[in-house]
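Long-time lurker. I teach an intro course on protein structure, and each term I like to show students one example going from raw sequence to a predicted 3D structure in token notation. This year I'd like something fresh instead of my usual example. Would anyone be willing to generate the tokens for the chain below so I can use it in lecture? Attribution to the forum is fine with me.
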Amino acid sequence: MQHNITKLFNIQYPIVQGGMIWVSGYKLASAVSNAGGLGLIGAGSMYPDILRAHIQKCKKATDKPFGVNVPMLYPDIEKIMDIIVEEEVKIVFTSAGNPKTWTSFLKEKGITVVHVVSSVKFALKAEAAGVDAVVCEGFEAGGHNGREETTTFTLIPMVKEQLKIPVIAAGGIGTGRGMLAAMVLGADGVQIGSRFAATEESSAHQNFKNTIVNVKDGDTQLTLKELAPVRLVKNKFYQDIQALYQRNPSIEEIKELLGRARAKKGMFEGDLDNGELEIGQVAGLIHEIKPAKIVLNDIVEEFNHVKSLVNSL
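-- Reply from a regular --
Happy to contribute to a lecture. Here you go:
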């Protein structure tokens, strides 16, 4: 399955595992890489020394390419980037910030750089900054998201029309059919988060994994746009947010309700009532917790099967 993305990352399949906070440790990243995709360690929920440990463990768990996802709005960014260079990580995905800030630094070290965007405007800025590819994420995705609420399947062709570098589709993709549809619209590959969150190797709490399996359409919502838009499961914490909105709150009041470590409380510690449960709309298609290798193989098998059916029409 040769594509621009497989050549860029030296992987078998054009499938990237999302570097999700509290979910994407070395066990998940190495499992996806060993299965032929590109595994990503999610640095956003790791202190620098924890990230270093995960990188070192990932090196021992796989001899295949893997990368690190770095949300640039997090603290200790300088230490994180230094560790990435010191540990000789070859692929970095950046998000939640200006790609100009770190792209040159990383590229000078021989690192392949990909930036996550949610609009044509920011995709063009990322290309101008010198990144090797972009991830275009529609608002179906879980976690932090674009304010514009542009869907993946409208975003991809609009970005592809404007950019010369490879485009990776993300948001609402968790099956082989979804992967094929994204690539028909112009994507060179796909990034999949939610489906890999519900795997045996995911570092998410079992309570959260079980919740993912039980999510139906309409059970998630994009909210907290005043701070950083995030798609959440409609649990008690989400309902508390909606009740606060009824009072036309100030930014300070919203921040006070959010508090600290809400995502950790929900996704890592398993507090389903008071925690922040970030997951994409595609969770409605996730019905079972499986090993990451099986998930990836299922996606590839369905992709090839549906592609053959389309070709026979």
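Some talking points for your students: DSSP finds 14 helices and eleven strands in the chain. The chain has a mean pLDDT of 94.
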